[in-house]
Design goal:
- This protein is of the alpha+beta class.
- Helix content is 32%, strand content 36%.
- It folds into four domains: 67 residues, conserved putative lor/sdh protein from methanococcus maripaludis s2 fold (Beta Barrel), CATH 2.40.420; 78 residues, Elongation Factor Tu (Ef-tu), domain 3; 63 residues, OB fold (Dihydrolipoamide Acetyltransferase, E2P); 100 residues.
- The two termini are 72 Å apart.
- The strands form four sheets. A six-stranded antiparallel beta sheet has the order 2-15-19-18-17-16, with no helix packed on it.
């Protein structure tokens, strides 16, 4: 009897639970439209400025070496010393070079004297040859029937032949005089150049940055002996893209900023053809040092194209998709996905084409939007 009672109570509880179970077919609630931030498409006058950072370097820098071999005889400079152009800095023993110069000068002088002598002898030989020709003609006219006459004629003819040979030799000596003098002059010039190369002079006014040799050291051509730098002016060497390069020109003034101050530099070099590996253009800006130093970081402000009434939108308003750019225009409570053309970026704004000034657009968080979507504007 007790078992039947428990069974009845259990069945009653099950029936109550069945009738009171929750409805499993609840309707899905639609999400409210997203709240968006909006902005207006503006029109402004703008000139984008590209900032490029680099290190200042000496305007000129030269690693110098001797062009002749020899032992360092004197050292006239030390590291950090300022020197004027053509200042003597190092020299090698020059005895052999001085002897070579004196020898060449003596050879040239001897050659000139020999040429003058041959020129005078040639005149005399021409006169003697003319007289001998007349003598040969006279003997020939007298006849050669007798043995004595024939002997005199033969002797006179031999003398004439010898005179003609000597005249030809002297004529060749005079004719080749210019070439021989040039050869001797070339030898003298070379000897004098080698003598001058025994001294290392400053190619420009600057500061000695390094001295690699000392008195007694033996140097050979190509061996670095000294380094000199010009630091009264500094160069800022930069690598820039093609767009920036196309908007600059030689001689243009550029604002340079450092941690010390702002000053103006001038473009002195601009590569037209880009580097094949980096696809960048080399740019060199020169400016007076005036307290700045080589190795210091500097920022060049490169002015771009000046735009009048440029159409601009925030960078955050742009959707990039499949290689194209879009912006969402707000029309009533819906958004329209508009293709746009990117002209040039400057800081946080983008110069564009494809939207009218004054249009309302979504200003950020555009990646989650779809064309025609309903939005809520706060």
């Amino acid at each position: 009897m007790k078992i039947l009672f428990v069974s009845a109570v259990s069945a009653l509880i099950i029936m109550v639970l069945f009738w009171t179970r929750p409805d499993t077919h609840a309707e899905l609630q639609s999400l409210p439209p997203p709240t968006v931030n909006i902005d207006l498409v503006n029109q402004i006058d703008i000139q984008p400025i590209t900032e490029v950072t680099g290190k200042l370097q000496p305007a000129r820098k030269a690693s110098l070496h001797f062009q002749v071999s020899g032992q360092i005889e004197k050292r006239f400079v030390e590291t950090g010393q300022y020197v004027k152009e053509n200042t003597l800095m190092l020299s090698v023993e020059a005895g052999d070079f001085m002897d070579a110069v004196e020898e060449s000068r003596a050879n040239l002088k001897t050659e000139r004297a020999a040429i003058e002598r041959d020129s005078r002898l040639l005149v005399l030989m021409q006169q003697e040859r003319e007289l001998q020709e007349a003598e040969v003609a006279r003997i020939k006219k007298l006849g050669r029937d007798s043995l004595a006459s024939k002997s005199n004629y033969d002797q006179a003819l031999q003398v004439l032949y010898r005179q003609q040979a000597e005249e030809a030799r002297l004529q060749h000596s005079v004719d080749s005089a210019r070439s021989r003098l040039m050869i001797e002059q070339v030898r003298l010039n070379k000897a004098e150049r080698n003598l001058s190369r025994a001294q290392l002079v400053a190619p420009f006014a600057g500061t000695i940055n390094r001295v690699h040799v000392d008195v007694g050291d033996y140097v050979t051509p190509g061996q670095a002996a000294l380094e000199i730098v010009q630091v009264d002016e500094l160069d800022l060497n930069l690598e820039i893209n093609g767009l920036s390069a196309s908007q600059l020109q030689l001689g243009q003034k550029i604002k340079i900023m450092t941690d010390m101050d702002e000053r103006e530099g001038q473009i002195i070099a601009l590569a037209v053809d880009p580097d094949q590996e980096t696809n960048t253009h080399a740019l060199k800006i020169r400016l007076p040092s005036d307290g700045m130093f080589a190795g210091q970081l500097a920022i060049a402000q490169l002015p771009g194209h000046s735009y009048k009434n440029a159409t601009v939108i925030p960078i955050s308003a742009i959707l990039y998709e499949d290689g194209h750019a879009y912006a969402f225009e707000v029309i009533d409570e819906h958004v329209a996905k508009r293709p746009i053309k990117l002209v040039e970026r400057y800081k946080n704004i983008q110069i564009i084409a494809g939207l009218k000034a004054g249009s309302t657009i979504i200003s950020k968080d555009v990646s989650s939007l779809a064309d025609g979507q309903v939005v809520m504007i706060p």
